[in-house]
């Protein structure tokens, strides 16, 4: 059997982080088995579906590098096929026309609610003669669901789940205007696309028992199901925007790398021993449905930050420069030329050790390429006034004739100057850091001086230092 999975989002908004995890699990399972990963856009809700949302979903999947096989399928464009199946079920006696008006159905639900009964369709047109149909009423087509026995689902995550068929009513397959419902469309599409494994959130578990009735009515083989627990916030509450229920594009804008987000989403509900850092290659090799837990996972930004920091340290320097240059340009309002890009690439080994996100990385790298004079933080400005300015002026005079311009030689010279003046190293190094970076925090300052070069280093000192 060739494994076929699918990701089937509704284009009513951004690609939610929970949806991204579902896509990842489907992608990994297909890749692990050498199978096929399909993308279906479930756009039957025409009032809420938008092209912008479709593009956001596609962009999110591309950024996460979860490539799908073949073209994305529009569910709405297959509505004729869905209606065809509904009529086939009616011809076979597994569906029927229901002429109950909206007012009748509302009254029925009100009575059930008042009696403390579950609100479900009572089957009033199930066995009624269509000749009794009222004039001028367009009927819906309903599934004639089994009323006795039970439906048993062997779920790869939830285990064996049973539902009494009496709890399942005769759901609508085609609306009065002839358009198919979501429940029908999903089943027909999964069957026609040869989907072998349906991996989705456990909020669909109830839907699955209803959809199984359609498979059986049509005599189709059931796919295998795996219903994944939902993601909760760190406090255990249902995931909301304050927890991280954002679109994938928001994580990209916050400066996370796609490989870090993939690793983090993988660990939200799936495990392989005690491994926390799992490369995509390892994930493809190891992923199976048995590793998915039954309990909701908890979203934790601190863990995501730590993972992202790890992947940033592993990332190619030139790639990181390409990712942060737009951020630097947006902040400075000036283009970063090729010479500045080269400087950032040489500085990257020191910069990327300390940043957790690309935004932090861009902020920490900005001083390397900003036009002089540097804008100082308040704390940095305090370090280069009075005694600090005098120290820098004297240090500049010592460095001016200096020939060996590498970090070790610069450090040795600064240490010798501090010793001669009876100063602790910090009394010299901290004003130097402020002059060269505009901040009290930077990579090792002697490495910074080496990277900036002698001319730029002395020019930055001269911008703020006044000789005695």
UniProtKB/TrEMBL annotation:
ATP binds at residue 241. This is Glutamate--tRNA ligase. It is found in: Cytoplasm. Its main location: cytoplasm. Belongs to the class-I aminoacyl-tRNA synthetase family. Glutamate--tRNA ligase type 1 subfamily. Monomer. The keyword Protein biosynthesis applies. GO terms for molecular function: ATP binding; glutamate-tRNA ligase activity; tRNA binding; zinc ion binding. CDD domains: GluRS_core (cd00808). Keywords: Aminoacyl-tRNA synthetase, ATP-binding, Cytoplasm, Ligase, Nucleotide-binding, Protein biosynthesis. The lineage of its organism: Bacteria, Pseudomonadati, Pseudomonadota, Alphaproteobacteria, Rhodospirillales. Its EC number is 6.1.1.17. It comes from Skermanella aerolata. It catalyses: tRNA(Glu) + L-glutamate + ATP = L-glutamyl-tRNA(Glu) + AMP + diphosphate. Residues 3-305 form the Glutamyl/glutaminyl-tRNA synthetase class Ib catalytic domain.
